[in-house]
Amino acid sequence: MPAHLFCCCRRLEQDPTFLGGLIKSISQIPRPCTVAYQLPSSFILPMSSLVGESNAVLDTTIDSRLLLPVTIYYEDTDCVGIVYHSNYLKYFERGREQLLGQDALVSLFDAFGKSFVVVNVKIDFKRSARHGDNLIVRTIPTVESSFRLEFDQTVWRINRDDSQTLVVKGTVQMVCVTSDMKICGLPEMITVDMRASFGELLDPKPKVGRRLPLKKQIAATTKQRAKCEFEIEIYYEDTDFTGVVYYANYLKFMERARSQLFGFKQLAIMKRDHRASFAVYSANLDYKNGATIGDLIVVKTECVIESDYRVAFEQNVFRRRAALEDDGASGDALLVKGSLVLCCIDDGGKLVKLPQMVFELPAVSGQ
Questions:
Q1: How confident is the model at residue 17 (pLDDT cuts 50, 70, 90)?
Q2: Catalytic entry in 152, 240, 286, 332
């Protein structure tokens, strides 16, 4: 018997009132939060996706399916101390599943062999979320055609005063496919059921042009494009229940290729001596096909320093050899085409210039 339990039993034998006092003391201990974060009653969000970048607010009567609370745990973060960038795509996925209904998605797959797949992701990272933060994922659906859905998705941090700060914004385009991965028309759960629930909200919305900041050009000698290839085999953990690699995992594959390009030792020195780490600023991914268990894929990476603050990457993922093939005689088949921009942040998450050592890395300088 544990010592503390033995002492309690002895004390109870000597003083019958001890148990009542113990229960009262335990009941007064503050309970840890073990449930999902709840929206404050006064919760509002800027309706930027529907009205550009105005200061309009989202009515608290908005359908609850459009808002998903997320609490950040250790597992969501990386060694930089912030939420790992590909995890936001998982939060986007949860927001879409809540909106579409998990039961409906399972029934669609089990009964008809149909599922939704991502064909394009555009995402901009505005700020960093950290361990313990409470976030809200807002999802606004649009039926772009009889074959294509688009979701405007944003992630907001709920501050201590219940105000909201934009963390990530993006758009995700999806199509419905059959069991053999052929595109088919959108099912009735979209064209009928969702239309009945959301009405005009599903209509295509005006596209608001995004003004890009002017790039501060640097010396032409730094414009050399670094290149590398990195092979990866696909394991069970990389796939989802539809049998293909989960779409967010391609960002992980790309990050591994970038780390190989720069070198782990150089990245560690940059963080230790310069208090600087790379963070993804924006990403644009086009999904052409899906890898499956046992496939050998290759991430082909090219990078160029665009300014004192930004490094641009072109990263394309190819299937080099399928699991059932003896070799890659058919050549590399394009799976995902990606364009990413990285910047540097300090330990507090503040944007900083690229350290000089980045310009001197063999992968960048060509030495």
A1: low
A2: 240
